Amino acid sequence: MERVKELVDYGVIGVLLFMSVVSVGIAIERWFFFRRVNLKDFKSRRDLEVELTKGLHIVATVGSNAPYVGLLGTVLGIMLTFYRIGTHGFVDTKEVMVGLALALKATAVGLLVAIPSVVLYNLLMRKVKVLMARWDVENGG
To answer: What is residue 7's predicted lDDT score, i.e. its pLDDT?
Structure first.
């Protein structure tokens, strides 16, 4: 069962941190792309839309799935706590509370990854819509 503890501490939290880095990295790259994009380089609206939305699905995926990854860590942590209670044969309140608190950290990290990812996705999609509207105005679309 020590493997489960390591899985929660390093595996789940590590996956969430990786997801966070990927999401923020893509968001930063897209923001810089939006700042330097020249709308006149695009002949069709669809080509522009494809270029503007590259990678945004990953930011959305991180935002929607990070809470579930965190929840998985919490479930594994709670299972570990119950296993320890069962193997000791008695209930030590301190051990239970510490185990549950540590289990809940995975959910907290999942939310700390998801919330900024969803905010970044919404901000980036707003910028996409603005750029698409500007292209429409310039091209009589």
So the answer is: 74
Residue 51 tokens read as 């270029």
Query: How far apart are alpha carbons 46 and 49 in whole angstroms?
Result: 5
Contact 102, 77 (CB under 8 A): yes
User: Nearest to residue 67, comparing CAs of 21, 139, 15, 126?
Assistant: 15
* Full DSSP string of 42-91: -SSHHHHHHHHTTTHHHHHHHHHHHHHHHHHHHHHHHHHHHHHHHHHSS-
Q: What pLDDT, on the 0 to 100 scale, is given for residue 124?
A: 98
**Residue 48 · residue 39 · CB < 8 Å:** yes
How far is Cα 56 from Cα 29, in angstroms, rounded to an integer?
A: 10
Grouped pLDDT means (10 residues each) for the chain, 141 residues: 73 94 98 96 95 97 97 89 81 80 90 97 98 93 64
The pLDDT value recorded for residue 3 is 74
Terminal Cα-to-Cα distance of the chain (whole angstroms): 62
